[in-house]
Design a protein that fits this description.
The protein is mostly helical. It is built from 5 helices and 3 strands. The protein has a single domain, classed as Winged helix-like DNA-binding domain superfamily/Winged helix DNA-binding domain (Arc Repressor Mutant, subunit A). A 3-stranded antiparallel sheet has the order 1-3-2. A hairpin with a 2-residue loop joins β2 and β3.
Length: 147
């Protein structure tokens, strides 16, 4: 469990940014614990969020999803290299543009993406038990309103 200082703001409450960051830290810690206990202990949440989630739809160029990752092109390129070296993805020349590479999940990559999705569902179930079904549903509804 993440132990974080919880400083109050001037009204006696934590700033919303602190509450959201705390929730993210809890999620990451639980994800890391669960993935470490799986057959895919060498995966990180960043690998799942920045590469695997885009390739489950099928082979594509990195340029098709890099802008949606929220991190630098260099960071995603490093993650792609790590995933290829570890056998989660393949990289082949694009037949339409030999300078570009087409990325695809391997069988191991497909299994890892499925495990990541199972972990996400399990974490959401855990949080729902903690928050209660109504509050968990309300939290999702409210956060999905954000742009």
């Amino acid at each position: 469990m993440v132990d974080e200082q919880k400083p109050p703001d001037v009204r006696g409450r934590r700033p919303l940014s602190s509450v959201l960051r705390h929730a993210e830290m809890l999620f990451v810690a639980e994800f890391e614990e669960r993935i470490a206990a799986s057959d895919f202990a060498d995966l990180s949440l960043a690998h799942a969020a920045n590469v695997l989630r885009f390739l489950y739809r099928g082979p594509q160029r990195a340029s098709q999803f890099i802008g949606s990752c929220g991190v630098s092109k260099q960071a995603v390129s490093l993650q792609i290299a790590q995933l290829e070296k570890r056998g989660y993805i393949t990289s082949a020349p694009d037949p339409q543009d030999q300078r570009a590479r087409i990325l695809a999940l391997t069988e191991r990559g497909e299994a890892a993406e499925a495990e990541v999705q199972r972990i996400f569902v399990a974490i959401e179930k855990t949080w729902t038990k903690h928050l209660g079904a109504e509050d968990a549903k309300a939290l999702r509804r409210i956060l999905e309103k954000l742009p």
